[in-house]
Amino acid sequence: MFNEIGENYDLANTVMSAGIHHLWRKALVKWSGAHEGQDVLDCATGTGDLAIEFKKTVRSGKVIGTDFSPGMLAPAPAKARKAGLEIQFEQADVTALSYPDASFDISSISFGIRNVENPVKGISELARVVRPGGIVMVLEFGQPSIPGFKQAYNFYSRHILPKVGGLVTGRRQAYEYLQDSSVQFPCKEGFVALMNETGRFSKIEYRP
């Protein structure tokens, strides 16, 4: 499914979120505390947006972007080169990473963990590859609880988002799946509980 939408994925995201998804990624990099010289692993990197944001910050540090889908990953190297950034992109399964323990200062995944068959194992791998005191960052959709806004969001995500995504990519079914998966996946305290199942974290917090 993801192999089929990779070519137009960026355009669809920008149209559907009015460009806000770029701000979310910038905020994640800021919240991570990333700085010059740090090494970063971005999993489910897709077309490389978050890996690119990290590279702009860590500069001389190593950034590797991985994705399970070669179709999603295909546009990433050219995007990085266009930005004048050296980023290594590799096909990889977040639940079975080949990198040694304690290889990175930060690991991350954006809009991807809910698509992992075993998310606890994926999160555990993200934690395994960071150095002591390192950071695991997860950016994911949640479900709003504010009355009125919740209903409006649900209507948009169920009825508008799949239509727009389908028009841009020609794969409406993929965006219906993405909407359904975001509804079913735990958020806030539920996701914290999921992370705690790994037994690998000394501190966990979320920001809505």
Describe what this molecule looks like in 3D.
It is a single chain. By secondary structure, the protein is an alpha/beta fold. Helix content is 48%, strand content 14%. It has a single domain, classed as Vaccinia Virus protein VP39 (Rossmann fold, 3-Layer(aba) Sandwich), CATH 3.40.50. Strands 3-2-1-4-5 form a 5-stranded parallel β-sheet, with helices on both faces. Helix 3 packs across helix 4.
CATH classification, class level: Alpha Beta
The end-to-end span amounts to 29 Å
What is Rg? 17 Å
- Sequence stretches where pLDDT stays below 50 over 5 or more residues: none
CATH superfamily annotation: Vaccinia Virus protein VP39
H-E string: HHHEHEHHEEHEHHH
Helix content: 40-55%
Into how many domains do the coordinates divide? 1
User: What structural class do helix, strand and pairing data support?
Assistant: alpha/beta
The CATH topology turns out to be Rossmann fold
